[in-house]
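Progress note, project year one: complex with zinc ion.
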Amino acid sequence: MYDTLIRGGHVIDPAHDVDALLDIAIDGERIAAVEPDMPPEGARQVLDATGLLVTPGLIDLHVHVHWGVSHYGIEADQCCLARGVTTALEAGSAGAYTYPSLKRWVIDTAQTELYALLNIAWLGMIGDQVGELEDPRFIDEVLAERVAQAPEILGLKARMDRVGPLPATEPLERAIAVAERVDKPLMVHIGSEARMHVPLDAVLERLRPGDVITHCYHGKDGNILDDRGRVRQAVWDARQRGVLLDVAHGAGSFAWDTARRALDQGLLPDVISSDLHTYSFMLTAVDLVTTLTKFLHLGMPLVDVIRAATVAPATWMGMDARSGGSIGHLGPGAAADLTLLHMQEGAFPLHDCEGEIETTTRRLAPVTALKRGRFLGAGPASALGLLTL
Ligand SMILES: [Zn+2]
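Model obtained:
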């Protein structure tokens, strides 16, 4: 007898090349079987997913949920689990001195499964009055190295924004040195070249295989396109080396023009993340599934869009099936983390961060999510009339 059976949904599991009408049986916290036409009497509760998409629990590789400490911080479960995201990466709100509070009061208490990047600056992203890389005294490599050993810290974060004084490459070099010492990757925020105080090419050429360029389709000066609108050679070279491209929409880091030109030239994102925070959640970025919808609108196939928010981030995190992990896929034995989505038809406005609005004819909307076999996201499924006990 299974605990839960999810019947009749359109299952998309890019890790296993699955894109079909299938049922999913759950035992405890694990997926027990994924097969067509399983008998409903074989489970204690049955969820009718007819007309819905069923995907591995969505993974958001860039959120800011250090509530009450960072001015960017929002509540993890409201912006993640309630919006269909079962696992998320806190992208560097906390530095060495503020990380203990992130661990104790957010990571350890949220129902969303959370991991973190450690900001190379010990103060993290507390306020907006001073950029954390504006003063080299904010970086303490010994302290960062000690804190970054924590198992739930998956890498380092350097925000190349308001960097100074010169040489502006110094914070990047110091972040890379710490990342090398703890043997973890580095995520680098790219932004306006005028505020980075260093050309984008000089940042890109320092990144190592497994490092991440976040905000890859921003529309500010010095973005990934050259002055003729072509993807810079340094971007292709970085990707060739194994550097990942992460969307991280946020409040200022997604431009229709940059994304469309890049996609037209074949530069697709490896990971689609939201960069949800105080100034983007339910505002420009809305949520992760709205960010995914923007890439459907740009012409990416649905299965590739789902891949970029499931197995792709899980692989980078070392938590996919091949790494011996249990998230980002729906094979038997995987964590019973699932997201149920509705593909809505209509006319929906989609905003970028440059004031441009495009209208799409279909959008993804979160219905509910299961975390380790339990319905926790987007309202109880029983209230939606989907669940029979
Ligand atoms: Zn961010």
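The chain is about 20% helix and 30% strand.
Residues 62, 64, 91, 248, 250, 275 surround zinc ion (CB under 6 Å).
No further modelling is planned for this target in the current period.
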